[in-house]
Amino acid sequence: MQRTPGLEIIPLIGLPEFTPDHSLATEIVRSLVGIAVDDGDVLAVTSKVVSKVEGCFVPASERAELIERDTVRVVARMRGPNASAIVENRLGVVAAAAGVDASNVAGDWVLALPEDPDASARRLANELRDALGIDLGIVITDTVGRPWRYGQTDIAIGSANVALYADERGGKDTAGKPLTVTQRCVADEIAAASDLVKGKTAGIPVALVRGLGEYVVPGTDQRARHINRDLELDLFSLGTQEAFEEGYRSALAAVAAGKVLDPRAE
Amino acid sequence: MQRTPGLEIIPLIGLPEFTPDHSLATEIVRSLVGIAVDDGDVLAVTSKVVSKVEGCFVPASERAELIERDTVRVVARMRGPNASAIVENRLGVVAAAAGVDASNVAGDWVLALPEDPDASARRLANELRDALGIDLGIVITDTVGRPWRYGQTDIAIGSANVALYADERGGKDTAGKPLTVTQRCVADEIAAASDLVKGKTAGIPVALVRGLGEYVVPGTDQRARHINRDLELDLFSLGTQEAFEEGYRSALAAVAAGKVLDPRAE
Questions:
Q1: Are residues B153 and B225 part of one domain?
Q2: What domain range is B144 assigned to?
Q3: Closest Cα to residue B240, out of A147, A190, A19?
């Protein structure tokens, strides 16, 4: 099949309002009728619909308990009324309110993130292979804010059959110089790209990205979970105010314990 | 013209190795021959080629001075040999080594970022309108790392004719609930998306993104520079270690000044 040399990002139209009674794979296959899919294509799936088919509904009245349950550690606290904390959640993602979300959920419910989005992606990839006979890449997306930048973008929180990075380390640039650092996070870029069509109109939770052949690697053991930086390599593991306060308390404790004899000399 | 309902991202092939003797607009127009462009299309342009045509070359031996010149404040210091600092640069972008880059630059030169990427984008948009008769959106991109996530993605450091955000605040979601926070940074998502075709192969510094009509706003006064979060609203304005040390010093100074009488009681 003739392809443009670039990418196409196609919103999947006509998907239902998902419930635990739906099969995500079945509905996706149905919505793909008339759209050519091929090895090398990637489906970007909003985590929200994965949560819905997996039944991750929690009564809205239990939102606070859910956030607490899904919080591994608090990174920073926003100020002001109704401000939520920025935390590392059980998936290793740093996000406001642990990624718990009430938007686009009907009734008095909130949605927890999928239990294991990498496993969800793997299941979906397998079911789609059974139905379509091809290995699609799967990226499960979530929306997060960023330090230093206003606004949110989508990132990858689950994946299957996708190479997470365009790893150019060890290669050479066009000028023949060694590339020592460059390691593009393709999975997050796919998530962000897919949001451009998903985000346009409500009710479009899945997009097909065509033309990513070199990043679709059937059976790869790379998992979006591994994009999360290890705590000890993270220069921003604690918010500025929280780290300042920890330092302040630490100094006072050192003084109280007699470990600092002359504070002026430190 | 019939368009797919989604996006197309087309790498521009055959652009030259840019020098200050080139006109970016002229070369882009040349490379667009045979490709349909229309209002609502966006060109994503790697800042590196903007720097090259604007002559932002600095001798490699002056790299350290250039980084210092472009640094507004140090945010965090990486550890280890050859580690660069993460700083806010003169464009307001938080990036390693102030965004100064030696990759894909021939000879003993490094490249500074464009003096004013928003102005560069505006100039390019005007020149392309003169040449093509249409208003294209322009996003000038740079590559940055992220806290909490491995790998880099592209972000927007300059823009013209582009709405930076899909601002859904004040709207309602599909379940009729008010959206209070959601504000997708479309400009950064365009930058990330374009990197998927630019990043694939060296020597592709420009991509055309088709199908973004609702975000192309000719003459908008929105500028990518404004995506940078104001310092006082930034919960991560200083690295964890740096903030801890500041807190520690601050406590000792308070003790030394007699402001803390009983450290154990604080």
A1: yes
A2: 8-56+114-234
A3: A147
